[in-house]
Amino acid sequence: EASQMSASPSEELLKQWESEQDRLRQRLLEEDTEAWQRDRNFSGLERVAGVDLSYIKGDHVNACAQLVVLSYPQLEVVYEDSQMVALTAPYLAGFLAFRESSALLERLQRLEHNQPHLLPQVVFVDGNGLLHHREFGLACHLGVLSGLPCVGVAKNLLQVQGVHKGEEHRAQVAALKKAGDSFPLTAASGRVLGKALRSSDNSSKPVYVSVGHKISVDTAVRLTHSCCRYRVPEPIRQ
């Protein structure tokens, strides 16, 4: 009988993913763990990476997983890996990481295996970290699984937990006068989930920076700004 049917596959999957997310969240570090992070000029930081997954319009299976590593502070590309991948997991809102993280993690593992001396000391993720429905976005997921410091940088504001694009937000954005200026994105709970950063003098549109793993929000913002030639930080832009 219909009444005896089990939960739909997506409900089952959701439960499974939620518990996996909770398990991984236990390992999340939201503070500076590396010596270079505490240095005013990030002395000791030599390699920064950017990862992204690009989709083909109208195709929800095939995507291009990309990893670039740049020298720091020069921001010149020293390594590039682009790979077409077939995504197997469905997209469920709030669970993007279950769809995208393994393809990105594979790129990092391949680099570590082939050219370990180029392994990045921090990874910029085109997406969110703590700024997420359950405070565990793609940048957190990838950070915990890779063990590398990660920063989420999004071009659009994910409106979660009482963080929204109202009048107040617009006024705060307008008040960001120069590159490097930022303001906190505070959840209804009072927790700072990330910061809006004016990353370039030439663009009044901010980027939204949040902690992925092994970095504090203030360091993440300062580092993001230091990696910007334009609005989008160079590791992600490349």
CATH structural architecture:
2-Layer Sandwich
Query: What is the spatial order of strands in the main beta sheet?
Result: 3-2-1-4-5-8-7-6
Class of secondary structure makeup: alpha+beta
Total number of distinct structural domains: 1
**Nearest-integer average pLDDT:** 92
Instruction: Provide the CATH topology.
Output: archaeoglobus fulgidus dsm 4304 fold
- Total number of beta strands: 8
Global outline: globular
- CATH top level class name: Alpha Beta
CATH superfamily: archaeoglobus fulgidus dsm 4304 superfamily
Q: Rg to the nearest angstrom?
A: 18 Å
User: How many alpha or pi helices?
Assistant: 6
Termini Cα gap = 55 Å
H and E order: HEEEHEHEHEEEHH
Fraction of helical residues: 25-40%
The percent range for strand residues is 25-35%
Low-confidence stretches: none
Largest sheet: 8 strands, mixed
From the structure provided, what is the oligomeric state, counting identical versus distinct chains?
single chain
Subunit structure: Monomer. Interacts with PABPC1; the interaction is RNA-dependent and stimulates ENDOV activity.
Cofactor: Mg(2+)
Family: Belongs to the endonuclease V family.
Subcellular location: Cytoplasm, Stress granule; Nucleus, Nucleolus
